[in-house]
Amino acid sequence: MSVYMNDARFANKGYQISTDNSLLDFDTIFNYLDGESYWAKGIPADKLRKAIDNSLCFGVYKDGKLAGFARVITDKATFAYLCDVFVLEPYRNIGLSKWLVQTIISHPDLQGLRRFVLATLDAHGLYKQFGFEQITRADRWMEIFTPYK
């Protein structure tokens, strides 16, 4: 892990990261995932609500307004899957995605896991900075994939 961002650097500019789901702006998250993401287009709102309710979520805020989001599906002991990671356009290119990933992998409930995984089309460079690598023995992994209609 080679990149660590200073929390104070962002806090001094009005940013914070919270795992308090009551702060999340569901409409903004839904609109981004359904309308702009390549991985969750067409997700029904009720499925996203259920997913958020049953995940460890991280909201990035600028002066109380949602600037980014990520969620982790985990048993908090052996396995975690990082997904739905995004920073909204007006807040990009200032290091928030690095700060968000750093915060996630440093979270106390995500320490000592045997496996922490994610899937990405184009952000390999970001995640490699924090120790993520391509899956070894990919031939052992299987899935049931049912795209949203």
Automatic annotation (TrEMBL):
Keywords: Transferase. Residues 15-149 form the N-acetyltransferase domain. The keyword Phosphoprotein does not apply. This is N-acetyltransferase. Pfam families: Acetyltransf_1. GO terms for molecular function: acyltransferase activity, transferring groups other than amino-acyl groups. The keyword Transport does not apply. InterPro entries: Acetyltransferase_Butenolide (IPR053144), Acyl_CoA_acyltransferase (IPR016181), GNAT_dom (IPR000182).
